[in-house]
Design brief:
The chain has helices spanning 16-20, 29-39, 53-60, 93-106, 124-129, 164-171, 198-209, 226-231, 243-248, 260-269, and strands at residues 11-14, 44-48, 66-71, 76-79, 84-88, 111-116, 119-122, 154-158, 179-182, 189-193, 216-220, 234-237, 251-252. The chain is of the alpha/beta class. The protein has two domains: 11-88 and 196-269, HAD superfamily/HAD-like (Rossmann fold), CATH 3.40.50; 93-193, Hypothetical Protein, Haloacid Dehalogenase-like Hydrolase, Chain: A, domain 2 (2-Layer Sandwich). The strands form two sheets. Strands 5-4-3-2-1-11-12-13 form an eight-stranded mixed sheet, sandwiched between helices. The termini are close together.
Length: 270
């Protein structure tokens, strides 16, 4: 039992990059061992990430015990036991057009990338500003697209001068109702459906599984993890976490390079 909780831990939800994954963006042997240990104790293991399911699933498959992946900052729920998308939230096209037009007007030089149910795309400016994005893969071999397709799950916003949280602070007040922005620690900002975040999707999953939020431990390191850490019974910030994440966390564990999540699981839940 984690200090402050009223019952046994029944679910852990962990961010991936900067949290569960090491600096090499892979699960360490120690982390795999820790996840398997708690799974044997009937703890549900959930990945909660800004990544799409296309790359998130491969990152956690090695452990063999992650059963759900909350992806694209909560916009997609992927069932690893069935190898399928359980559900996803796409942005209203009119709202997205307005958001992108407003950002172009008030933040000259912005570029956009996007995730849709069929893959990724980007415009020429985003390609120039972000010459490589980990999960975009072969997208960079294709010609840039002049506009987004229908049914966009998440939009990536890049700027020539502003990055990460500095860019986020400028983007948030420019967005219309219906969308929200978050930062995962990358140079760009991510925009998705309003009301949908890691916390909301993990909460919905917990209701479905009959798990109380008090029995959830969540791990994270960036702005897009804050809502999840605040919602969970115990929110744990990584040693490398952004100060705003430390501010809302109940506890702090070691740096992700030192297997902070694994160490916490061995010490507190083993």
């Amino acid at each position: 039992m984690v200090p402050g909780q009223t019952g046994p831990v029944r679910l852990i939800a962990s961010d991936l990059d900067g949290t569960l994954l090491g600096p090499d963006k892979e699960l360490s042997a120690g982390t795999v061992e820790a996840l398997r240990l708690i799974a044997r104790r009937d703890v549900v293991v959930v990945a909660a990430t800004g990544r799409s399911h296309r790359t998130a699933v491969g990152k956690v498959a090695r452990a063999g015990v992650v059963t759900w992946a909350v992806c694209s900052n909560g916009a997609t729920l992927y069932d690893l036991t069935q190898s399928r998308v359980d559900h996803m939230h796409t942005i209203n096209d009119a709202v997205l057009d307005r958001a992108m037009n407003d950002l172009r007007t008030h933040l000259p030089g912005v570029g956009f990338g996007w995730e849709s149910p069929w893959g990724f795309g980007l415009d020429a400016q985003f390609r120039a500003l972000q010459p490589a994005v980990d999960e975009f893969g072969d997208t960079y071999r294709n010609p840039p697209m002049p506009s987004h397709p229908a049914e966009v799950i998440k939009v990536l916003v890049a700027h020539p001068d502003l990055v990460a949280n500095e860019l986020l602070d400028q983007v948030i007040p420019l967005l219309p109702a219906g969308v929200r922005a978050a930062c995962s620690g990358a140079a760009f900002v991510e925009v998705s459906v309003a009301g949908v975040g890691k916390a909301a999707t993990v909460a919905a999953l917990c209701r479905r599984l009959g798990i109380d939020r008090a029995d959830v431990v969540a791990f994270g390191d960036q702005h897009n993890d804050r809502d999840l850490l605040e919602w969970a019974g115990t929110g744990v910030a990584m040693g490398n976490a952004h100060p705003s994440v430390h501010a809302v966390a109940d506890e702090v564990t070691d740096h992700h390079a030192d297997d902070g999540v694994a160490r916490y699981l061995f010490e507190r839940l083993a």
